[in-house]
Amino acid sequence: MPGLFQQIQAGKLWDFHGGIHPPGRKEQTNQKPIAVLPIPDRLYLPLRQHIGVAGQLLVRVGERVLKGQQLTSAENSMAVPVHAPTSGTVLSITPHTSPHPSALPELTLVLEPDGLDEWRQREPLNFLTCDNMTLLSRIQDSGIAGMGGAGFPTHIKAGLTQPVDYLIINAVECEPYISADDLLMQEAATTIVKGIDILCRLLNPKAVLIGIEDDKPIAAAAMMAACSQREHYYVRIVPTKYPSGGEKQLIQLLTNKEVPNGRRPADIGIVMQNVGTAFAIAQAVLDDHPLLSRIVTVAGDTLNQPQNVLALLGTPVSALLDACGFQSQPQQRVIMGGPMMGFTLPDLSVPVVKTTNCILAPTAQELPAASTEMDCIRCSACADACPASLLPQQLLWYSKAKDSDKLQEYNLADCIECGACAYVCPSEIPLVQYYRVAKADIREQQREALKAEQAKARFEARNARLEQEKQERLQRNQQLAAARQQQQLASGANTAVADALARIKAKQALAAPAEERSKEQILAERELKKQQAREHQQQKAQQQKAEQQATEQHNEPAEQTPAVTENTNSKAAAVAAAIARAQAKKAAQAAEQHATEQQVTPAPNTEKSHQAEVSAEADPRKAAIAAAIARAKAKQQAQTEHETNAAPATASTANKPAAGSDIVAATEDPRKAAVAAALARAKAKKQASAEATEQTAASTTGAPEPDVAVTEDPRKAAIAAAIARAKARKQADSENS
Ligand code: SF4
Ligand code: SF4
After folding, report:
1. What is the rounded average pLDDT of the residues 615-620?
2. Which of 173, 290, 367, 453 would bridge with 181, disulfide CB 3.0–4.6 Å?
3. Whose CA is closest to 677, among 718, 616, 618?
4. Cα–Cα distances in Å, from 596 out to 590, 592, 593?
């Protein structure tokens, strides 16, 4: 029995499960040549038109770009750039309705063509001489992604390093109405084969299998003619059956191989590329013509001229319909894609992108809208039609129940959303819509689970880091404590050095982050602050004391200043000042005592003497002056009395010291004043005693001796003298009688 490769070489074909045979309706467009559309007024270029990520913008608003110029860069392997389809000016870069079933807005560059269609510089490559990396870079930089509908970056599939047995070129185009690949093969078979040559150079397959449905005889003939010179290129005509163009289905048709669940064709040595992709590769490598346009089938009974058009990427759907004589009807539906796998557009400003192969504008009779959904009758027609050998009714049940586990168990991921099940369902259940929603929910759950897993990993990493930092901090603190103890033991005598080191460590601890400071370090900081506060208070007290001493020195009499200034010790100065104050107080007391004595003697200026006494209490110097003045007055009065009453008093008065000099001295020195006052009091007392003795002797002879108290108090002496005179008079009277 021949092997698989021999069977393939012999032209054997196989079949896949299920499939349907809807009316093709390709005759509307597959008999007409490709029309080239005029450049529209605006081109809307989504920055992401493929599976993967968008490239980085290379242009700014207002910038003029040339035809073929790269608008985004491909820095990521899953990114392919977009190019300016013609020369013009970048009008804006803003979100615009996307050509996607969700119709979510995507970042879109709006280009205003200038009509010149001016090319950038082009650099064709000779694929026979350049290396694979250069070819792959050219394919990626030309923005080529799968043009059969998936939009997978071509350079990734073309750059596989694992062995490839079969390179399959998908030219089946099984969905009704669509004939873009058919026309491309009819008009550009030679270029397509050159593209296949480039792919073979990169992948080096054992054989190339080109699958074409039997409803495209002209295209098949053209391809056979183009491949006639290639020994291992095989054009295979497959029966018309939907969905023969599915990747897994076509592989099974041509090789009888099944791609396992969750695996890729490359895992079984097979790579599949669309015929339009092969054409784009040839243009990119051989002409340095990036992917700027594509053939789009514009079909439907609402069009006067349904046809295939070569449209620049970014051309609004409305421009395509207008070019084909679109006659809109009430509740008109416009579908992007075929009637089986396409989706209804939200508005006609949606642009043509790299994966757009058909725009369908049917009448209501031609393609009726979905009718009312009914309950499943479990007829199993859907299971019979499913090309992926799934159980669509079970998937429907679990989709409604949102049972993700069961959906995955029933291999929802293998559903290619071909719509064959819905096409045959007698209950008009939109099965594919249910599956799309369920797939979106599962994707969201998987995204959330991934996020939760990443968050958990971050949380655990953070905990590990904190624990490590804690251990390091503990170890550091222990080392610091040990070093501190050693220092204290080693330098117990030199506490100043130890204190300084402690302060330095405390400063270092202050400079460290708060979370890294230990309890001991915080206590050391507090102790340092307390010590600094105590030192500050001591300095402040010393300063206040010095200021007080300076103030006292400033208030001292002029005579004492030299003595104080000679004494450098502030304590001695304070003692001297206290002595001076005591002396002044003593002088004031002496002056007060003298003033009291003067009050006993009748004097005309008693009130003034009282004032002097009061003032003397306030100021020792004033008291000394008042005492001196009082003494002078008493002396003056005594002199007057002596001059008037007795001559012997003159001699005694003449012996008195100069009172004026005493007063001056008293005003100059409280001590001297006190001495002078004492002398004055002694003299006054002596004088008063003498006067009393003289008066007593003059008034009466043989009178009794004066009382001792008289010598001490002039007033008492006067009273005693009066009593004595009265007694003497009484005695004289009694003698006379
Ligand atoms: S074809 Fe429709 S009605 Fe029949 S089993 Fe499937 S889902 Fe149910
Ligand atoms: S849409 Fe999915 S479940 Fe329905 S027939 Fe196609 S592959 Fe099967």
Report:
1. 46
2. 173
3. 616
4. 10, 6, 5
In a domain, 257, yes or no: yes
Confidence at residue 467, expressed as pLDDT on a 0 to 100 scale: 96
Quick one: how many helices (H) and strands (E) in the chain?
24, 16
User: Are 171 and 314 members of one domain?
Assistant: yes
Q: The domain spanning residue 288 has which CATH number?
A: 3.40.50.11540
Domain-embedded: residue 281: yes
Residue closest via CA to ligand 2's atom 3 equals 392
Residue span of the structural domain in which 676 resides: 570-683
Report pLDDT digits (tens) over 415-427: 999 999 999 999 9
- When divided into structural domains, the chain yields a total of 3
* 666, containing H or E segment: helix 659-668
CB proximity list for 519: less than 8 A, separation 6 or greater: none
Could you identify the atom of ligand 1 that is nearest to the CA of residue 431? 7
Q: How many angstroms separate the Cα of 83 from the Cα of each of 1, 57, 135, 142?
A: 52, 11, 18, 8
My answer on whether 311 and 348 are in the same domain is: yes
Q: Are residues 625 and 732 in the same domain?
A: no
Rounded to whole angstroms, how far apart are CA atoms 290 and 294?
A: 11
Nearest in space to 609 (alpha carbons), one of 639, 634, 585: 634
CB under 8 Å to 86, separation ≥6 — which residues? 39, 43, 67, 111, 113, 114, 117, 292, 312
Among the atoms of ligand 2, which is closest to the Cα of residue 420? 5
> Given a cut of 70, is residue 669 above it in pLDDT?
no
723 and 634, same structural domain? no
Q: Ligand 2: which atom is nearest the Cα of residue 422?
A: 4
Q: How far is the CA of 383 from the centre of ligand 2 (A)?
A: 8
Please tell me whether residues 135 and 192 are part of one structural domain.
yes
Tell me the CA distances in angstroms from 609 to 82, 447, 585, 604, 627, one per residue in order.
Answer: 121, 113, 19, 10, 9
